[in-house]
Every structure is written in C-alpha cells, then in structure tokens.
C-alpha cells in the first residue's frame, strides 16, 4: 500500500497522541476573484503568546537571511542558485503569523544561548536539509559580527555528521535514521526492526536538544525501499500495511523518549511531515506537471489542517508543525536546479524534478526561525 502525503500527514497526527495542542491553520487564501480567509479557533502554541503556525507568506525584500555563495557547507542537491535556478523571488518571502510577528533570527544570540551545548537532528534527508540551513544561518550571522569568519569544524560521516562552532562550544549534528528504528543485517538481508531503536538511540544520548523527523521513507518501494524484511517481536514480514508499520515504529520511538530522555535537561522536538509538490491538482494555474517552473507560493482552495493532539506520552515533546505553512511553498523546491542531476535529467523535468527537498537559502530557514523561537 503506497502512502500519499495526505495519508501520511493524517497518520502522523493520529499516532503522536502525546503532543500538547497545536493548530496549524494557514490563512490568506488567495483566489482570482478576491481574498478569502479560512481559519479555525486557534490554540496557544507551546511557549508563545500566539499560534506561530497560523498565518501567510508575505514578500520581504530584506530576505534571504544569507546568500548561498557565503555558505560553503550546502550540499549540491540544495544549492539551487549555484546550479542555475534563474529566478530569485522565492527567496523574498517571510512567514507572518496572524496575531504576532515571528522574531527575526539572531544567530549570535542563538550561539550564546546554546554555548557549550549539542543540538542533534535525527531523521531523513529533510532533517539534513534543516541541519544545513541552521549551519548557514549561524555561520552568516557570526561571520558578520567579527572581522574574520568564525572558527568551525565539520566532521562528515554516516550516519553521524557534526558541525562545530568552536568559539562557542556549540555542536550541530545530523544523525541519519530515516525510519528512526534500527535496521539489522542478517544473512545479507536488511531487517527493519519495528520494535527496537537501541542501536540508533545510543548515539542520541547526551544531546541537549533533539529534533526528530520521519515519514517519507515508510512509503518507498522497489529500488528506494530501505529494507528487505520487517521484524516485530518474534515475527518477520516480507511486507505489511505501511501505515501499521509506521505506527509501530513511531510507538517504539515514543516509548524510548519517555523512558530515556530527561526533559528537565533535554529539549525534544518532533517535526511534522514536510510536504511534496508532485501533484499539480493541489494548486491553481500550474505551469508544468510538478514543481518545475513554480516561482511563487501556492494558495490552494482547501487548507490541510493539522489537528493532532498527542496524549499518550508521559513527557510531551514539542511539535514543530511545519506541514501547512510548507505546503504553500510549491516554489521552494530544487526542481531541476540540483547538483545531483546530469544534463539529460535536467532536460526532462517531468521525470527528474526534485519536489521533495528544499532550496537553501529557503523554506528550512523558516523552520529554524520557529525552532529558535521555541528554544528562546
């Protein structure tokens, strides 16, 4: 059973029954014959006086927060300007909550607050997308406050990569674990352990801030499938309902957090599913068969609303609900402007455009502004 974006989003909301209430209604829905606002009663967002996830995208020519040419740490697949994207208006939008303003990012202040601490992103390549965004936001801010670039160190590995701001003792790590739970190899076969997370989780202990994401890889089949068999307790499966598998794996994750993370010393986040834009039925006036050629945000007629309330966890984690605000940004994907594509692939955007990841600078910078606001 293949998982659609809508199904994955709904499943995530139903599964994580321990997060504090958050709504994520986006307003400012624009149609050709007028402006329509759609909203539901909002619930106060974690540590803020307004719901940071309810609002609209507005143009701001003071953006982006940094230039890709000034951040040499961006992977080629995210560096859209370097690899030929001809437009730049997509860089000029900021997220505007309805009843408040999202604080502009203060990189030096963030580094000072996090002095001596470790921040770790855990999950799939969308987590890496956000990790590199935060590196660039901090690097550009701290470089501007000094006559010379900040002292840094990067250690790349698999599954763990770490970027250090040496002057502050701050470590930003990314741990690749698309399913969060463990994968064992037995007699040459990859076994996805729905009931075990201990091998991966050993690397997460000791972090001061943990931010998790998962979702997209659970739907992959064929060559993109990351396992040969699933194991749940004593039973092995050649396959099972992917929704059930996702639920069991995510439950293993939540049980580990409850049992092993001291919330008085460690901040824990789970980031909602990042949307893709392969289906042009989701917005009006498409210019191609997917996100290729899209240069402005979408304002679809029907808003997907995140209604999740997570009640089962003993110690609730923070939900960074970026799904709806990201869904509007059909213009923010690498499309064909990725260093991972060869010329023949770039000539065939209907099949090759990346409408899953995000350009840097770009949308993940807003995720990190929200992330930073929660940590402040």
From TrEMBL:
Signal peptide: 1-24
GO cellular component: Golgi membrane
A GO MF label: xylan O-acetyltransferase activity
Residue stretches making up the Trichome birefringence-like N-terminal domain: 49-101
Domain Trichome birefringence-like C-terminal: 102-372
UniProt entry keywords in alphabetical sequence: Golgi apparatus, Membrane, Signal, Signal-anchor, Transmembrane, Transmembrane helix
Stated name of the protein: Trichome birefringence-like N-terminal domain-containing protein
Source species: Acorus gramineus
